[in-house]
Amino acid sequence: MLEIDVRRRQGAFTLEMGFTAGSGVSALFGRSGSGKTSLVNMVAGLARPDRGRIVIDGRVLFDAAAGVDLPPEARRVGYVFQEHRLFPHLSVRQNLCFGRDMLPAAERTVSFDHVVAVLGIEPLLARRPSGLSGGEKQRVAIGRALLAAPRLLLMDEPLASLDGGRKNELLPFIAGLSRQFTIPILYVSHSMDEVLRLADTLVLVEDGRVAAIGPVEEVLSSPRHVGLTGQGDVGAVLAATLLDSDPRFGISRLGFAGGVLKVNLIDRPSGTPVRVRIHAHDIAIGRNPVGGLSVRNQLAATVRSVSAFDDTQVDVMLDCGGATLWSRITGEAQAELALAPGQQVTALIKTLTIARGDVADRPNRSSGALPG
Ligand SMILES: Nc1ncnc2c1ncn2[C@@H]1O[C@H](COP(=O)(O)OP(=O)(O)OP(=O)(O)O)[C@@H](O)[C@H]1O
Fold first, then answer.
1. Any idea where the Mop domain is (predicted)?
2. Which of 81, 93, 168 is nearest to 129 (CA)?
3. Could you give the strand order of the β-sheet that contains 359-361, starting from the edge strand earlier in sequence?
4. Going by CA atoms, what residue is nearest to atom 1 of ligand 1?
5. 249 pLDDT above the threshold of 90
6. Per residue in 281-298, pLDDT tens?
7. Is any ligand 1 atom within 6 A of the Cβ of residue 11?
8. What is the CATH number of the domain that holds 351?
9. Is residue 225 part of a domain?
């Protein structure tokens, strides 16, 4: 477990953050300049907090009051940067072994063959970094960090320099790392798509502070965080499981707390845990179920709250079997429906509005982060 409680002033910017991150992937998400890289640099030992403590699994890396400040190489923290930072004059094999060779033999606990197999880099071992693709270089950089047997892996936008195809190639590798090597990961990202696909816990960073922390579904479904996530509209993120698919109609059925949701076909096996994002402007509300309609999803729900988004639009929070949904309707619709908390309604969602990019594999781990 990573315990952070730090303060640092750099120029006009003050960072003050306290939180605890457990197993799995904790995503640090926030606007440019909000302090994400500064924080991971402090954990890595590359920047010094003015005060506070950083502790991993009970081992104190930094404690200003006690005068503890371990150098980076003694922290047992792996760091994967945006750029791979491989040594150009060394082969892939030599690069992989670089950090590992510095460890006492007893601490070389991560198997070379296992890392090479998981990352699929066996065919690259004899080559030099200059001949590798961007995605291959990043896989080698991740392998090098893992082989140094870190207690925590820091990843600062490791996919930022890659194009869409390479990102998709690497995401599944990263998604599996935390589980396969039982290492907690602190992952800095600008991309909500990455957060949905990788993170167990979301740490929203705003102006040097932790604005929210919790399971991804919870944090993203809260209207208070919409501006911070930069999504532009309210939306819910549901935890669901793929029930089955019907290729004839291009439809998959997802089971979630509120029932069954039909979405665009997902090319995954039945039983796959997924996350699905549903935008508020894609949900209509009926007072009653409606017959003779092309809309495939009609979900029984209870109105929890009704709040003005602006002068003309209204956000309605719905409870659907314990899952939260958001619907944005016009002020005119609200004037007619007069929705109020406690009211039973039907949420209508077109299957086609839930695009492939809105459904991501759900990391199948328990969330391990607690507010600090
Ligand atoms: N060495 C420094 N001296 C003074 N100010 C700094 C220094 N390093 C960073 N800053 C400032 O601290 C703030 C946080 O920077 P940081 O790089 O941590 O943000 P970030 O969230 O990682 O941004 P991005 O997503 O763009 O990488 C910014 O305002 C930045 O200008």
1. 292-358
2. 93
3. 259-264, 251-256, 235-246, 273-279, 359-361
4. 10
5. yes
6. 899 999 999 899 999 999
7. yes
8. 2.40.50.100
9. no
State whether ipTM is beyond 0.90.
yes
Residue bearing the CA closest to ligand 1, atom 12: 13
- Is 226:211 a contact under the CB 8 Å cutoff? no
Nearest C-alpha neighbor of 125 from the set 140, 141, 110, 108: 140
CB of residue 245 inside a 6 A radius of ligand 1: no
Instruction: State the closest ligand 1 atom to the C-alpha of 47, by its place in the atom list counted from 1.
Output: 1
pLDDT at 17: 97
Question: Is the Cβ atom of 371 under 6 angstroms away from ligand 1?
Answer: no
Residue type, 166: R
Nearest to 279 by CA among 257, 258, 263, 303: 263
Q: What is the pLDDT at residue 226?
A: 58
Mutate to test the pocket of ligand 1, among 36, 48, 82 (most ligand atoms within 8 A of CB): 36
In the chain, how many domains are there? 2
* Ligand 1: nearest atom to the Cα of 38: 18
pLDDT of residue 97: 92
Task: Give the residue numbers spanning the domain of 256.
Answer: 235-361
Q: Are residues 318 and 247 in the same domain?
A: yes
Does the residue 13 lie in any domain?
yes
Per-residue model confidence as pLDDT tens digits over 51-98:
999 999 999 999 999 999 999 989 999 999 888 789 999 999 999 998
Query: pTM (2 decimals)?
Result: 0.82
